[in-house]
Amino acid sequence: MANTFTTSNFQEMVLDSDKPVLVDFWAEWCGPCRMIGPLVEEIAKEYEGKAVVGKLNVDENGDIAMTYGVRNIPTLLIFKGGQVVDKIVGAVPKPNITKKLEEQIG
What we know:
Helix 2 links the parallel strand 2 and strand 3. It contains four helices and five strands. By secondary structure, it is α/β, with parallel strands linked by helices. It has one domain: 3-Layer(aba) Sandwich (Glutaredoxin), CATH 3.40.30.10.
């Protein structure tokens, strides 16, 4: 199951992680976000132990979205070593997401 990232756990779970982290910036009202939501859940299961995968609701955690310049959702950011190393904007097929995540794991 995908993690839920919030303002209170972002530092610990994302920035301080020793594994690559995929963060799905989404909102309840966003249609394309709902389309990729199940993909993010699948990726979370498949990459358990290899990467940290989760979702961040931009309506509830707007400060983090602003910090990383997220203006369009869904936006997927991949963090490694506390830094953004890749970015995917929009609803994309699962292989597009997993390919970018694999690049950070290998």
